[in-house]
Write a structure and sequence with these properties.
The chain contains 11 helices and 5 strands, in the order H-H-H-H-H-H-H-H-H-E-H-E-E-H-E-E. The longest helix is centred in the middle third of the chain and has 82 residues, at 138-219. The two termini are 45 Å apart. Strands 1-2-3-5-4 form a 5-stranded mixed beta sheet, covered by helices on one side. By secondary structure, it is α+β, with helices and mostly antiparallel strands. The chain has 3 domains: 3-136, no CATH class; 192-252; 256-375, Histidine kinase-like ATPase, C-terminal domain (Heat Shock Protein 90). Helices cover 65% and strands 10% of the residues. Helix 2 (11-29) packs antiparallel against helix 3, helix 7 packs antiparallel against helix 9 (259-266) and helix 9 (259-266) runs parallel beside helix 10 (287-308). A hairpin with a 2-residue loop joins strand 2 and strand 3 (323-330). The radius of gyration is 34 Å and the shape is rod-shaped. GO terms for molecular function: phosphorelay sensor kinase activity; protein dimerization activity.
């Protein structure tokens, strides 16, 4: 099940569907009197079309992600449809649709703006109650619905902030896991380097001395014809060649492998999905370089989540001549020039301090494209 389908059938959305269905049933099949300003009732098909339009906008908003202006526009459209229905049909359940709108708007506007909008919404409700529906106690009815909206808004706000805190905690945990993986890889690389040096300096030195002594024995007439001496010389040659091969193999693995750390960094993010490609020879020489690469990918993930609304993030790390190339791009749908905030500026400064650099642009489809490079021997 993909992310959008999960959002559509979430418990909170399902409760909204039930409320919408109950309101629609009463709107279409129950008897109600039209507002006094209408000469005759509005046909049921027209009201049904407006009601279905509200559902379509509600589902589209909740199954995002959309750019923030688009989401806000869809919520405002739902509010307009609800007030339109209240002006055309004197149905007591219609204000419940405003609760669904309020639940959405507290997630898309800052708290002060949300409070001001809720107050403005209920001023409109009061005016409709008093001048259009002409009910006996418009203020009491408005305050009652406003209390329901406030309860739903607070519940939604706390759920929203709890989700944000969970995501931030997951990101921090991912950062710790990536750092731990990096430290473990650094320790393995240091131990591998130490062992290769020990084999080369100690075992290789002593085997060379052994070869020289065996060669001296082979030149001695007393041992020149001894098969055991010749066998020992042959074994010493083979053993020295094997040790040199092992040292060379260990030397080829010099540098830090970032695959595990990068996967750990992206694992907690349900979106975007990380598509990682790392060349076999794409290893960084120092922990500082490894941290620069990790922070660059982390910034790419953060930008994709917060700004690009991307579903996928492609990360390619490869070696070209005497430099490492990091290519990061997403499938977001942005427009205009990418402005460098604190994250991108910090990334550029970190790379430049190591002798590298960063370029920022957009892909052909509007996603963000980051290209970074580092010298191999920084």
């Amino acid at each position: 099940m993909n992310d959008r389908l999960k959002q559509l059938v979430s418990p909170m959305n399902f409760a909204g569907y039930l409320a919408w269905a109950a309101i629609g049933w009463e709107l279409v099949y129950s008897s109600w009197s039209p507002p006094a300003w209408l000469a005759q009732p509005v046909p049921a098909p027209a009201l049904s079309a407006m009601h279905l339009a509200f559902l379509a906008l509600f589902m589209a908003t909740t199954c995002g992600p959309w750019p923030r202006p688009v989401e806000r526009a869809m919520v405002l459209a739902q509010l307009a449809i609800t007030f339109g229905l209240m002006l055309l049909a004197r149905n007591s359940t219609l204000p419940i649709l405003l609760i669904l709108c309020v639940v959405q708007l507290v997630q898309m506007w800052p708290p002060r703006a949300s409070v001001a909008m809720v107050v403005a919404i209920n001023v409109g409700v009061y005016l409709i109650y008093r001048h259009v529906w002409d009910i006996g106690s418009p203020l009491v009815s408005t305050l009652m619905h406003m209390s329901f909206q406030g309860f739903a808004a607070l519940t939604a706000w706390f759920a929203f902030t709890a989700g944000q805190a969970r995501d931030e905690l997951a990101a921090a945990n991912a950062d710790l896991l990536a750092t731990r993986s990096l430290l473990a890889e650094s320790a393995r690389d240091s131990e591998r380097l130490r062992l290769s040096r020990e084999l080369h300096d100690v075992a290789g030195h002593k085997l060379t001395a052994l070869k020289l002594n065996l060669a001296a024995l082979a030149r001695d007439p007393r041992f020149a014809e001894e098969d055991a001496v010749q066998l020992c010389r042959c074994l010493a040659d083979e053993l020295l060649a094997d040790i040199r091969g092992v040292v060379q193999q260990m030397r080829q693995g010099d540098g830090l492998d970032l695959v595990a750390a990068l996967n750990a960094l992206a694992k907690p993010f349900p979106r975007p999905r990380l598509q990682l490609e790392v060349g076999e020879d794409a290893r960084v020489a120092t922990v500082a370089q490894a941290e620069a690469v990790l922070r660059a990918v982390q910034e790419g993930l953060t930008n994709a989540v917060k700004h690009s609304q991307a579903q996928n993030l492609w990360v390619v790390l490869r070696r070209e001549d005497e430099s490492l190339r990091l290519d990061i791009r997403d499938d977001g749908r942005g427009s205009g020039e990418v402005r460098a905030g604190n994250g991108l500026c910090g990334m550029r400064e970190r790379l430049e301090a190591l002798g590298g650099g960063l370029s920022v642009g957009r892909t052909g489809t509007g996603g963000v494209h980051l290209q970074a490079w580092l010298p191999v021997a920084a």
